[in-house]
Write a structure and sequence with these properties.
Number of strands of chain B: 6
Strand content of chain A: 35-45%
Largest sheet of chain B: 4 strands, antiparallel
CATH architecture of chain B: Roll
Mean pLDDT of chain B: 95
Number of strands of chain A: 5
Oligomer: heterodimer
Strand order of the largest sheet of chain B: 2-6-5-4
Order of helices and strands of chain B: EHHHEEEEE
Mean pLDDT of chain A: 97
Number of helices of chain B: 3
CATH topology of chain A: Thiol Ester Dehydrase, Chain A
Shape of chain B: elongated
Chain lengths: 141, 149
């Protein structure tokens, strides 16, 4: 796989958006793989009892999808050095989750690149950002 | 009821976490990534890694084990039904690979109040067998409306 070079990246470049339709079985698979068995992500009755219309995806499920978008773009998962996300909204089943990002800084001396990153869903015509005000850093060659 | 501020800085029992091949594949399947370095040791070696690579957020699995001790601490007074995951941070010093045995001592890095809510910051430095830091995980949990007492 081709690995992204520092010189190929410019401030303002956009991360290629990565889409995923969030299915109930995906969220269950994530619960089993991560060990987070909170009923909020599996049991509709429980989710309704705490005020949601049905189960929601784990925040970390969305974060993992965002990291997929980053590592696919870079071509080497080892070049991701940090990520800090804020969870500011929920994701419901059958919504299309889109991971996005934009290069905001480049450091020539360290060859590190910083991106502003987010996830978004279209909810009844409104653009909602379940992850926002978030940043990732890559160490490129 | 507010959280027990006196627990700021408390450290918990060390957790050990062996990174196993099957778990890495299961996690890669669950997050929907098809990069061969997460699945095939030969592809990983060809890319310069000592063995099959764990997807970066695979360490969430270990983080859940470590933070479990904190949220269940009776002295802390956290009502898990009121908890929302507000922030998550990872710093990777190197990629995690199959065969690593990570150890971490989770710690309450901070407890603070903002408006009606309280925030609990749990930090875990995950080290390898040689004692080098591999990943630092920092989770901020929001306890809804508990600041007022």
């Amino acid at each position: 796989m081709a690995v992204l070079r520092f010189d190929e990246v410019n401030v303002g470049d956009r991360l290629p958006p990565l889409e995923k339709v969030v299915r109930r079985e995906d969220v269950k698979a994530y619960a089993d793989a991560s060990g987070d068995q909170n009923p909020l992500h599996q049991d509709d009755n429980f989710a309704r009892s705490v005020g949601f219309p049905g189960i929601i995806a784990h925040g970390m499920f969305s974060m993992a999808h965002l990291v997929n978008a980053l590592t696919r773009w870079v071509g080497d998962p080892g070049e991701l050095t940090s990520i800090k996300v804020q969870f500011r909204g929920v994701v419901f089943m059958d919504e299309t989750l889109v991971a996005g990002g934009e290069v905001v800084a480049k450091d020539d001396s360290t060859r590190r690149v910083r991106l502003s990153v987010w996830t978004e869903v279209d909810r009844a015509g409104q653009r909602v950002l379940p992850i926002k005000n978030s940043e990732a850093e890559l160490q490129l060659g | 009821m507010p959280l027990n501020q006196a627990l700021k800085g408390r450290e918990y029992q060390e957790v050990s976490f062996p990174v196993e091949r099957d778990h890495v594949v299961q996690f890669a399947d669950a997050i929907g990534t098809d990069d061969p370095v997460f699945r095939d040791p030969e592809a990983a070696r060809a890319a310069g890694y000592p063995d099959q690579v764990a997807p970066p957020t695979f360490v969430t699995k270990m983080q859940i084990l470590t933070s479990g001790q904190v949220v269940l601490d009776q002295e802390l007074g956290l009502n898990y039904a009121m908890v929302v995951h507000a922030e998550q941070e990872y710093e990777w010093r190197r990629p995690v690979v199959v065969g690593d045995v990570l150890v971490a001592t989770p710690r309450i890095a901070d407890i603070y109040v903002k408006g009606p809510h309280e925030y609990l910051v749990i930090e875990a430095e995950m080290k390898d067998a040689s004692g080098r830091v591999v990943v630092i995980a920092r989770s901020t949990l929001l306890s809804r409306g508990t600041a007022g007492g």
